[in-house]
Amino acid sequence: MQLDEAKRKFIEGWGTLGSAWGVSRTMAQVHALLLVSVGALSTEDIMDQLQISRGNVNMNVRALMDWGIVRKELRPGERREFFSAEKDIHRVATLILQERRRRELEPIMRVLGEISQVEPSPAATAEETEAFTKMIGNIQNFADFANRAASTLIKADENWFLSTFMKLMRPNG
Amino acid sequence: MQLDEAKRKFIEGWGTLGSAWGVSRTMAQVHALLLVSVGALSTEDIMDQLQISRGNVNMNVRALMDWGIVRKELRPGERREFFSAEKDIHRVATLILQERRRRELEPIMRVLGEISQVEPSPAATAEETEAFTKMIGNIQNFADFANRAASTLIKADENWFLSTFMKLMRPNG
DNA sequence: TTTTATTTTCAATTTTTATTGAAAGTTTAA
DNA sequence: TTAAACTTTCAATAAAAATTGAAAATAAAA
């Protein structure tokens, strides 16, 4: 397989993976393109290679910069902006984990905290109220666990991630 | 807060969380409703409580059954079907992890394997080809890691999950 | 300042995804 | 069998999300 075709397949696959995880296909594809490009790309480079509009590129590179996984690169004597992706995949994973925790885990934990305060009322049987409280408590425990696990992974340095964590797993895992 | 309002907020929050993770809002809401319902619910119960059509309920409970997190319950002397959610949140997480690995991790690993076979060609510089191969290799390593981590979590029993894994994390993590 | 290059915004449009509802299908009971 | 109760399917429709493209904004150069 030649490089062009391989890149194309990677961009397609990354886009599909992204959309399964709630990231827009195009945003994932812009990320994929930057990941497999040696230098930084201009808006026009991205427009050309992915066949999408200027506005679309702009929106998506900014979103990727919000995630911290794409950086703007300014070149002396060049007016336009160039974009490049963080190439260290472990760091990419860490940054994504961090953002998803902030954007998704924290809000649901807040909701769980609020609704765990449910009070007994004549409209519901004690059994119903108790079952609800227990379920929410279990979900809170799990969310706390996920939150702590995320903290550990985020704080941990790469070495820990690749060695200590690996040791956890059986060789034939 | 009263039970009804708490349930409503949970269903809403779970739906929002789901859509951030690539699960349709309604599917997540059906799941949430079943999670906080004491007994099993009929199609009509779900239609009424979520204000959605019969076809929509049918589609979504079947999808949830495909994920293994909702079961059909048959009652003697009753012709209609009732549905109930797996209530053990750890098991829910395990089943979801298992399915997502199968549906999303495996396909991207297959793509990575294919494109890692990229061959040198006159159309690309050696530097470009090498950079690509290196990047794909790094992603493959990371995917292997994720795959093994998933295997370990899936195979592990609940006790391991809650104790051994917890020990990994610092108390102040 | 004025011009030019470039980025950003956003209303209109297109595309994708979800939903409906009624017909067809299935199962059980009479 | 036939009828009744219920489930499933799917074409049509609605809703949501993504995309465009051109105008407005911004920044640099002349």
TrEMBL record, chains A, B:
Protein name: HTH-type transcriptional regulator
Pfam family, one: MarR_2
Entry keyword set: DNA-binding, Transcription, Transcription regulation
Domain HTH marR-type as annotated: residue spans: 22-81
Organism (species): Hymenobacter mucosus
One example GO MF annotation: DNA binding
Domain of life, per lineage: Bacteria
Family to which this protein belongs: Belongs to the GbsR family.
Cited InterPro entries: HTH-GbsR_regulator (IPR052362), HTH_MarR-typ (IPR000835), MJ1563 (IPR026282), WH-like_DNA-bd_sf (IPR036388), WH_DNA-bd_sf (IPR036390)
Keyword field contains DNA-binding: yes
